[in-house]
Amino acid sequence: MPYGGQEQQLRGWSKKKLEYLRSYIVAYCKATTKSLKRFYIDGFAGPGKLPDEDSGEMVDGSPLIALKAEPRFTLCHFVEKDKATCEKLRNNTRGYDNARIWEGDCNEWIPIILQTISRASPTLAVLDPTGVIGQVKWATIRTIAQWKTEIILNLPYHMAVRRLLPNDPSLLSPDRATQLGEYLPPGWQAVYYDTARGRRNLLCRKLLELYRDQLKSLGYTDVFASAVFRTEHNLPLYYLIWAGRHPVGVRIARHVFLEQFDPRVRLLDVDDDEWLAF
Ligand SMILES: C[S@@+](CC[C@H](N)C(=O)[O-])C[C@H]1O[C@@H](n2cnc3c(N)ncnc32)[C@H](O)[C@@H]1O
Questions:
Q1: Number of domains comprising the chain
Q2: Which of 16, 62, 64, 179 lies 20 to 30 Å (CA to CA) from residue 126?
């Protein structure tokens, strides 16, 4: 879990993730200065501020990073399922008149929120789940793609996806397979069955490629992935995936995802043995 247990705390890899988000969001707002309106949707908002595990200081989470960006978002929509976390978010965003908080499941709220946004307005959707089942459905991503959106998606491959897919595909129950079908991109079963037996180390790469291909089939021209985020003990956790189609967004994402943070960061298209090292 990125924040560990009920008391969400910022660990090293979560801080790094927030730096990716901050870099992208700050540049995104500057790049959309000429647009009359710009919107932000955070499907998994969290409490807004989190204690740094090392210093104990409160650090801005994705909602506060978005609210502080200039020129400011016309509206920032925050969806949070957990009631108590939502209450913290309300307290932490008090005073920002462009904050809107929706308590509940983002798969239900995001299509409703999108109806209030013009399809011509630049909109950034950040989807930062900790797991798979009960989190972001592929149908929600498909709906988001119908607006002028860019997506930053946390793909918790090692934390969640991999654990839900047994090495022996015959051990995956039909009920679980049906459930996973709501959350993973179309085609995941073929990839899983093809790579599970004896080629398990390819599964991660093949699933990332599937995300890329399915996001492209929704109209996003460019899809980048970060290097894998790891714990202090070097255990792999998740990737951040960026999808967009505006040339300026592509330029910013290329900088943030491929140059700024980690020289090992790769374009998904690059053929690299590092993908096989999981
Ligand atoms: C990783 S935290 C988000 C952290 C936040 N993005 C940040 O950087 O500050 C994930 C949050 O999503 C919430 N959550 C889980 N499933 C959800 C769902 N289906 N819809 C909305 N929120 C959900 C959890 O309660 C948790 O607070």
A1: 1
A2: 179
